[in-house]
Amino acid sequence: MFKRFQILVQKIPFLSFLGNKYYLILIAFIVWMLFFDNYSYFEHRFLNQQIDELNDNKKYYQSEITKDSIKIKHLKNDNMIEKYAREKYFMKKDSEDIYIIEFEEDKIKDSVLEAEN
Known about the structure:
Number of domains: 2
Radius of gyration: 35 Å
Largest sheet: none
Mean pLDDT: 83
Low-confidence stretches: none
Number of helices: 5
Number of strands: 0
């Protein structure tokens, strides 16, 4: 076995470092850390992807919180509450009439969307 290795090393000088036990242990350690360890390289890549996704979610929700806090500040004003109720829920005062105007383009878009579903 050892003679075969010596002949192989003579033919291919690049393999001469395999005769050293420290290099063999180093290679085994690197292979172990890359593939078999609980905190392997691939596990770290997967965890880093999850961290990036969670950071993106965090940024999104923080921006939504700021938008909502601005809306809340606006809705503390009575005039803004009335405006929001009129636009969103079509509320009106007793002495008013509301006319909802629908454009032809909106009807066409709605019918196309219904046909696609």
